[in-house]
Design goal:
alpha+beta, six-stranded antiparallel sheet, five-stranded antiparallel sheet, elongated
Amino acid sequence: MDHIDWTRLKTGEVNLGTSIMAVQFEGGVVIGADSRTTTGSYIANRVTDKLTHVHDRIYCCRSGSAADTQAVADVVHQGLQMYSQTAGEAPSVLHAASLFQKVCYENKDALSAGIIVAGWDKEVGPSVYNIPLGGGLFRQPWAIGGSGSTYVYGYCDATYREGWGRDETVNFVRNTLALAMSRDGSSGGVIRMCVITEDKVERLFVPGNELPKFWEGHEVLGDAKKRVIDTGVVPMAVEA
């Protein structure tokens, strides 16, 4: 190999083949993620925490290379701490998302990082920002990412409703992630969620044996029975 293919993981690199999500509601946001981290087909960690604290009321969900996303989150966390010290106030969610976008865009050829930034601030209240591979920046009422997201876009489009409260939003995130985890081989484990409001950050946990259950099909080949079709034709008698 005479050149570096940045579109593939480097040898031994750990990948967050994953399902991540953030949804805005009236008083805050709910973020969630599965917990499986893979190295190729090997599950390197089955209880990873992919919800990363970057400031008091601002969190991010990480997908892509574990090393890349951890490094980017550390850089942004340091930048937000410096801002809060110099400005004397908490940074906005947009400010945090813009820092993520700047780092991801300026290093887009060297990073494998898809980030969702969500939280609450005094300027706009709750907000969700999606930063996909390549370093774009998009504000959305809900965002999903990772390898498992491709299986649940239709479910999200058909199910999401504006005006939900906390409980409906938590249930939506839980069901969406459970569906993604059931279909995506790179997602699995447990569901971790965070409810971020003006007053507090509440952590929620759904263990693997309590995940919502949906239709998963059943074996049909073993149930197949040979059909006997009566054509009404009588076999001709053959003399010995």
